[in-house]
């Protein structure tokens, strides 16, 4: 286990929704500023349940989708899978469990990590990536038909926008030449030095979801014609998905600040993590067509027309990026907070106070993904320009959770 000397903020109890409402209202009166962590140190979340069957690899039998998890859980670091990764961001486990595809935000490359040996093989560089600030090569997702089409989807910042492309992965080719030419699936997402969003995932309905940021222009979040500050839902070809809440639009939910975490629970309900600004990060349960408040509301507002979060944190405790669902809980990686949060669920509500693990032990945490059953993959983020790298950073860890 890595030893770190950096000072870690003490864990605070997450406020009750009633107290949160008072504090959030007061916070809205403060002068707006921006924290130094991926668009302001905090997160906003979402919920909702898209139709369809899961496209993720099947998991071993575990906790029932109906069963409420215990108030307290546990985390065990099983092993370090890989070390010495450069600005890792997106993570896509291969369906057969043999490897993990990892994106480098700043290098614009995708690397395969062998899950047994940790051996790293660079697949190639994604053309057109223009890294700067919080932008670069970010989220990865595998096609629902990956076994037959071998398509890898990638979200990245180009010279003009944020976009999603797909590339064919051919492991028979030499290292560094295993990615085919990119096919642009979706373009026109606003880019900025900050708040580029970047997480993509195929949902249980086999549709592609993308979390975007408002690129530092707050007004975009409430503009339903803009792609900034949204969760988008589209077909694998980039068209508005059937059943979307707004006609001929990929917009699925709006009023977001900077979404970097997407995950579905055992009943196919969508949750999202979002960076707040100065006061509250959020975990949200996403409902199609709902308004999550930014910039009029940060955290719990209890105002008509705004969907309040499932849970919220002060920005120095979280700054959340990736999330995953396992053992009846959402697990949320914290950047500025340098900890892994467990949020036990009862439906779309938190069934107990969130619980923090690994505080300060591995530094900034970027991505967490299901490894099946009670296992998770966790990616650190010390080499992104805002961390304090130790020898071996950045890492991928295997966790056992309950």
From TrEMBL:
Transmembrane segments: none
InterPro entries per UniProt: 6-blade_b-propeller_TolB-like, Glc/Sorbosone_DH, Quinoprot_gluc/sorb_DH_b-prop
Pfam families: GSDH
Top-level taxon in the UniProt lineage: Bacteria
Region (Disordered) residue spans: 33-74, 380-402
Compositional bias of kind Basic and acidic residues: 383-402
Domain (Glucose/Sorbosone dehydrogenase): residue spans on this chain: 85-386
Compositionally biased residues, Low complexity: 44-63
Annotated protein name in UniProt: PQQ-dependent sugar dehydrogenase
Organism: Streptomyces cadmiisoli
Taxonomy of the source species: Bacteria, Bacillati, Actinomycetota, Actinomycetes, Kitasatosporales
């Amino acid at each position: 286990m890595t030893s770190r000397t950096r000072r870690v903020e003490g864990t605070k109890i997450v406020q009750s929704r009633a107290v949160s409402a008072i504090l959030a209202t007061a916070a809205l009166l403060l002068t707006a500023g921006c924290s130094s962590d991926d668009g302001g140190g905090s997160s906003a979340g979402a919920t909702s349940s898209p139709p369809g069957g899961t496209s993720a690899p099947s998991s071993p039998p575990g906790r029932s989708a109906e069963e409420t998890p215990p108030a307290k859980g546990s985390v065990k670091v099983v092993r370090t899978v890989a070390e010495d990764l450069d600005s890792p961001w997106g993570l896509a486990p291969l369906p057969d469990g043999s490897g993990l595809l990892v994106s480098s935000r700043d290098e614009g490359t995708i690397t395969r990590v062998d899950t047994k040996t940790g051996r790293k093989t660079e697949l190639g560089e994604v053309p057109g990536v223009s890294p700067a600030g919080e932008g670069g090569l970010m989220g990865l997702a595998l096609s629902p038909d990956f076994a037959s089409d071998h398509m890898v989807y990638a979200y990245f910042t180009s010279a003009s926008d944020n976009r999603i492309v797909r590339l064919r992965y051919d492991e028979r080719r030499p290292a560094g030449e295993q990615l085919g030419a990119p096919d642009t699936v979706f373009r026109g997402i606003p880019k900025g030095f900050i708040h580029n969003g970047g997480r993509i995932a195929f949902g249980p309905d086999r549709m592609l979801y993308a979390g975007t940021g408002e690129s530092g222009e707050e007004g975009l979040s409430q503009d339903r014609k803009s792609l900034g500050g949204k969760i988008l839902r589209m077909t694998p070809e980039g068209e508005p998905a059937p059943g979307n809440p707004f006609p001929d639009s990929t917009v699925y939910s709006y009023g977001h600040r900077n979404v970097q975490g997407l995950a579905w629970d055992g009943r196919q309900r969508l949750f999202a993590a979002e960076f707040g600004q100065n006061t509250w990060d959020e975990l949200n349960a996403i409902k199609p067509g709902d308004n999550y408040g930014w910039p009029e509301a940060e955290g719990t507002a209890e105002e008509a027309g705004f969907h309040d979060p499932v849970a919220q944190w002060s920005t120095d405790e979280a700054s959340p990026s990736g999330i995953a669902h396992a053992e009846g809980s959402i697990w949320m990686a914290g950047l500025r907070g340098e900890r892994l949060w467990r949020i036990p669920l009862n439906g779309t509500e938190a069934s107990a106070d969130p619980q923090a693990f690994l505080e300060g032990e591995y530094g900034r945490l970027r991505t967490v993904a299901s490894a099946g059953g009670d296992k998770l993959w966790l990616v650190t983020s010390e080499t992104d320009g805002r961390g304090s790298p130790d020898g071996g950073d950045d890492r991928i860890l295997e966790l056992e959770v309950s």
